[in-house]
């Protein structure tokens, strides 16, 4: 072998025997991966822990309710279990807006009719109750004059007003709206009046110094301060209205979720009654959620320590 070939062979062997050293970029990437992997695992564990704390209790509660429901269905007479009720619900909601006559309509139309009555009665109660609450809270003489009337009428059951509505309006639909009105007005009147009475006296002193009119006092000072109390009254009023409309429609008839429940009872369709109970609860839950979001949006919370 020549000297040149020997040198070439020795050089190749030396190069092949050397171990390549990683670059600085590769070392940094390895270090970052080793560092971020435990952090990612910790974040994943924290997320799973929060998910278990928030989702697991409701799921367990629903599971317990289904188990109790199935036990009652097995031991009771004529009460369908969760699976037959689910099949009936799938069939029912396959066409919730059908019309087969004035008294034979889908559950969707009945829910919308009930919501329409609640909206009308509640809207009228808000138009009367909120200004009345402002006036009662603002003027002590008016407060002392109206307070005995409110204390007398507020504990009366809302359904006790239904015959008065039928007598006055001669029709079931206005009577139901009247019942919603009379049961919704008290929470708004009382909460608004309490909110006005709790406005700091310093605000009113400033308004007196600036010689503000009653309209400016109501819109510039009282309304921002009273808004959280007002929204609380609205939440209570809507919840009460949705509870009352079901019972009122059972007595007055026509189209509505309450009448639909009573009609299904006359048809001995217990599965549809159970479905209606869930529908009423879900609609009430959605209304409550919307008003809670509204309350959180208008309520000022001091975050300073």
From TrEMBL:
Membrane protein topology class: Multi-pass membrane protein
Cellular compartments annotated: Cell inner membrane; Cell membrane
Gene Ontology CC entries for this record: plasma membrane
Keyword Hydrolase in record: no
Domain ABC transmembrane type-1: 111-291
Principal subcellular localization: membrane
CDD domains per record: TM_PBP2 (cd06261)
Keywords: Cell inner membrane, Cell membrane, Ion transport, Membrane, Transmembrane, Transmembrane helix, Transport
Alphabetized GO MF terms: nitrate transmembrane transporter activity
UniProt-annotated stretches for the region Disordered: 1-34
Family per record: Belongs to the binding-protein-dependent transport system permease family.
NCBIfam families xref list: ntrB (TIGR01183)
PANTHER family in UniProt: ALKANE SULFONATE ABC TRANSPORTER-RELATED, MEMBRANE SUBUNIT, NITRATE IMPORT PERMEASE PROTEIN NRTB
Record protein name field: Nitrate ABC transporter, permease protein
């Amino acid at each position: 072998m020549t000297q040149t070939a020997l040198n070439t062979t020795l050089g190749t062997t030396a190069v092949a025997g050397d171990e390549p050293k990683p670059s600085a970029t590769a070392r940094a990437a390895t270090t970052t991966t080793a560092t971020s992997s435990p952090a990612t695992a910790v974040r994943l564990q924290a997320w799973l822990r929060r998910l278990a704390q928030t989702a697991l209790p409701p799921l367990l509660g629903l599971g317990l309710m289904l188990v109790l429901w199935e036990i009652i269905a097995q031991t009771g007479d004529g009460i369908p279990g969760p699976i037959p009720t689910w099949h009936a619900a799938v069939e029912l909601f396959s066409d919730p807006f059908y019309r087969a006559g004035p008294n034979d309509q889908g559950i969707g139309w009945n829910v919308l009719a009930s919501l329409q009555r609640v909206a009308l009665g509640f809207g009228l109660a808000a138009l009367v109750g909120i200004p009345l609450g402002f006036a009662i809270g603002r003027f002590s003489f008016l407060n002392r004059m109206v307070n005995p009337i409110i204390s007398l009428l507020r504990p009366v059951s809302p359904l006790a007003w239904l015959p008065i509505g039928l007598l006055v309006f001669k029709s079931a639909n206005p009577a139901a709206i009247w019942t919603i009105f009379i049961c919704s007005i008290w929470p708004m009147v009382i909460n608004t009046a309490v909110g006005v009475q709790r406005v700091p006296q310093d605000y009113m002193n400033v308004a007196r110094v600036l010689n503000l009119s009653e309209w400016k006092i109501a819109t510039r000072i009282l309304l921002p301060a009273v808004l959280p109390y007002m929204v609380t009254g609205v939440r209570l009023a809507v919840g009460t209205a949705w509870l009352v409309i079901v019972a009122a429609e059972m007595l007055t008839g026509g189209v509505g979720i309450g009448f639909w429940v009573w009609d299904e009872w006359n048809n001995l369709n217990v599965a549809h009654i159970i479905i209606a109970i869930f529908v009423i609860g879900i609609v009430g839950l959605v209304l409550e959620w919307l008003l809670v979001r509204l309350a959180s949006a208008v309520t000022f919370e001091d975050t300073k320590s």
